[in-house]
Amino acid sequence: MPSFRLLAAGVAGAAAVLVAPAAALAAPVLGPVVVPVGGTATITDPAANYPSTVAVQLNTVACPAKIALATNTGPWIPAVTARTSTSVSFTVPTGPVTGTNGAVKAYNACVYDTAAGNSALQGSTTLYVGAPLAVSQASGPAGGGNQLTVTARPETPVFTTPASVTATFTTGSCGATFGTANPANLVATNVTKQSATAVGLTVPPGVVATGGGAPTAYTICLYDGSAATAALLSAAPYGANVATVNPPAGSYLANNAVSVSSSMPFLTGVPAPGVLLVTGAACPPAYSTTATGPAPVALTGTAVRRITSGRLLLNVPPLTLTGNQPTPYQVCVYANNAGGALVASATYTAALTATPTAVTPSAGPMSGGNTVTVLGTDFPTEPGRITATLGGVALTNIQLINDRAFTALAPAHPAEDDVTLIVTTPMGTRTLVGAYSYLNMIKAAPNTAPSSAGNVDVVLQGSKFLSIPFGAAGTAARIFLVDGVYNGADAGDGSRANGPVAECGDVLPITDEELVCTLQLGRRFNAAGTGYFDPATYANNVDDANVIAGSRLVTSGAGRFNRNDTGLPVTSPNQQLSPGLTISAVLSPTRALLSKPATVGGYLPLAIGGPLRGFGNALITTAGSATVSLMPGWTFTKADVGRVFGNTTGIANGTSILSIGPGGTTATLSAPATAGTTFTLTGVTATDGSTVITSAALTGNEAPAMIGTNSLGIPVGSSIMSVNPAGGGAVGSATISMPAVGGGTGSLTLSRQSNAMLFGATPVPNGSYHLTVVSNGAPDAALTDPDYFQTDVTSSSTFTVAPF
User: Fold this and answer.
1) How far is CA 766 from the centre of its chain?
2) Residue 556 forms beta bridges with which residues?
3) Residue 499 in contact with residue 486, Cβ under 8 Å?
4) pLDDT (0 to 100) of residue 47
5) How far apart are CA 778 and CA 793, in angstroms?
6) Has this prediction a pTM greater than 0.85?
7) Pick from 111, 116, 123: which is nearest to 18 by CA?
8) How far is the C-alpha of 554 from the C-alpha of 765, rounded, in Å?
């Protein structure tokens, strides 16, 4: 009878029950690590000598000395499907069950020399019945550090219940609980439960190869938590290679240079190694180009180059894929190509190389941080297997969508058009030229307002605002409102090729990424883009105008219309057109629109420009104040909003009316008055019932002037009609429009009214524009300033001027 041997499985979690002293002599292997019901398990023991009548029994208790009677509830006697003197294979029968969701459950596999009642126990091991797991890499480099994903089939979601999962590596048996002694350098790190069917982990540094050509066998043990009592969920096989292949994968379509290296001198005494690439099986123990499965690929000649005793360079040819999926090949290194022994092995994966085809959106801010989607083909879907750069800077937060797309955060990068995307996976590197443009972008809020709003505070978001020298003139940086892309080049007539229509001034940077500025929409820039248009100094004579009665359209055969005509009054010296008629739009140099249909028609010379209305000795101003008022009998109207003052004492030409006060007696201006109409007359004496006042301070220029609040009994709002100035030591006198009541002596506050002229409104026309920051607002700055830049035109820089 054969000698008694007790088998010790690679995952013998119930070792305390099963192991006898004789087990120390055993070195058997049971595979696979986890077997499903109906699956085949094989017990291999090189030191055994199994008879032809060998039998196997599965039991939930320790193996009895003789085979027990089989029942439906155990023990069970599975059918032996194959045997040799050192191995026995059998099918797991119906009866043994798995744990929850395919988790493993331990059974004792007892080997007897016969199925008869007088049988003798040959040995035993632990069999784990459960749902087998797949590992993203069957083997990896000695010393760990590589990422693995352990996955279960959808129908057996092993990882459903536990909130967290832990993992250890072992060359022996998995402990029944996580609390079993585990060396620190064999506990996996970065273990993440990704789903009910997937767990990611990092191989710990203690997973090393012990020498020899074949990978050193390890078992990955997965537990349902980190407590000492956490139960074993499942297990999976893994190997540590003596040598490392770099890169570990490549395109199956191309020749790829591969380095096989090791810290061990595995090529010592091997001057001419032989190399085979084997798929679907482990490396043969000796060099052979014959195989029961797919034929090995032999590398010969210059495709194999021995560099040192620890490094080999290979030229891997195009390879065949299995099922059009990534296909692992064993790189088998032999002492020679004439039956030499295996000296090292490692895994190389042939696959479709990930190929990027587009980035969307195709442009973004140079500050980065925005999400982009990379489109393409054959992207790996396991976490951590894609890296990429954009313009030479790494993408971050890469999130896989599927094998055709992933998202990421674009990095910061200086403004540049058409930068290159480089995507790297274990299968290789691919480049997409001109994939993305970094724009000097700004974002405006609000991004719309009516021209009647006057001054609008706008917040801009962008970059590097604190280092930009903003100002109001010369070479200072400016923020322009532009119809399209700003072009400050001199067009040859003093105007810019595409200059601003307005400016966002009074710039106040808040942070390097945010500023506030004030956009004045009630006034537009002149055609040259050098400043605000002043209608008080502008006139245009269109001497060939063709006016159509009942139509707003007017034409000029010689093209005499100018964009500055917009908003200005239009008259005909020969025949008066409709009262209050203005040019509402200039469509082209030959065509313009009137504000309302013409009452007459024909070829009429048109005069464009001039005042729309005047206020004779009626305007009252205060120096430094943006509020003005009118003498009684005069009022502002709603139509005056946006109109511009010209030739008016105390108000700068081009100052516009922003709003009208209640009753039309006051108005708010776009800029404060430069001089006031209010002054004080001292030493005044008024007599009750008299319309004559006296004062030695009268000079003769006080009339006409309106009298304000006083203590002399003179009615507020009355005015000085005429003056006899003081002279030769005599006291002067003045006639007032209403008699004093009570009289007295003191000072009078007087308001001397100004003549005022209002010209047509010149707001920014309705339309869509772009706010553009230019580092130098001078004409031709792009040609003369080597550090010049301007922000790009994007959807976020749009500012719309609309009726409401």
Assistant:
1) 33
2) 545
3) yes
4) 82
5) 20
6) no
7) 123
8) 19
